[in-house]
Request: fold
Amino acid sequence: MAHTFAIDEKYLTQTLVEMVQINSSNPMLTPGAPGEAALGAYIAQQMNALGLEVVTHDLGPNRVNVVGILQGKGGGRSLMLNGHMDTVGVKGMAEPFAATIRDGRLHGRGSQDMKASLAAMLAVVKALNDGGISLAGDLILTAVADEEYASIGTEDIVRHYHADAAIVTEPTDLALCRAHRGFIWYAVETTGRAAHGSRFADGIDAIMHMGRFLAELDQLEQELRARPAHELAGPPSLHASTIQGGTELSVYPDACRLEIERRSVPGESIEDATAEFQAIIDRLSAADPSFQATVAPFLGRGPFAVDADAPIVRALEQATFERMGSLPAHTGAPFWTDAAILAEAGIDTVIMGPVGAGLHSAAEWVDLRSVVDLAAILTGTAIDFCGGA
Reply:
């Protein structure tokens, strides 16, 4: 059944403009950047004005999460809306914080990724308030830090809050994203023996040995992409990211370090991926006892998937149909999002966000009509999922 409510488009646009005008670049990506504190204070102010129960969580110098809760009447399911406040840097952007509107598009850093979604989340509460609609279950808005780097924000959220379902409002062009790949960062180190370049009988070249590993790694990469792909997220993959080794031209290098990014799909584990790298090392060691190497993961984020029949998926589908007149496409993403953290915490999670382009580039923009549509879809989903009248 369709629900009667209205999105305050003027409020939504003005809120988005004011958010984009606040620099919230992540200091872990851009040294000296201000972080989320100023934007968090603005969002907390907006949440208070909407009558939410507001808590700001301090995560470190200028790093915050802001949570606003619209308490339900009771007896309904709880829903979390999640969006990150941090952005990447602004190098190459002429006017990153001008929030200029041209031809129905708002331009600026973070406009699509993802301040438009944060503004839409606030507009959901305003639509409920303006329409006199009370939810049965709680609606929890989480504006989080650090998604662009290490996701300390959503990691902290799941330590303090739980919900029956969540929508991560990352940009998806209004498609319903049900899966994405994870990633694991590895360090591979080969050990050689330093010696003068003239003393070939004494030296063991750690870089040459890493070359043997790289040749096998190339074969594994081709094999990964040939495996049966996940229906939405695609195949697993890997690439060699950085390499360091050697001290000077006339010395055999005694160490070499390679860093690898391995992209994983739903159903794969860190243990499985590590075993494949270890198998390469074992083969090379068996062929040449002088070959010594180690492999270890140093950061991993799991893949994400949610079932097509999950209640939150069905609610989001229905709300999209009511707003757009057609069901949303079900998609997967090759990149990682905070949805994986929420899913690992036992929260059924989906991803949906507005239309735009230029994420992490010098020309980022968001389509304002799609932001209004997103706010309406999220409102309808909250009423349906949480129960409202």
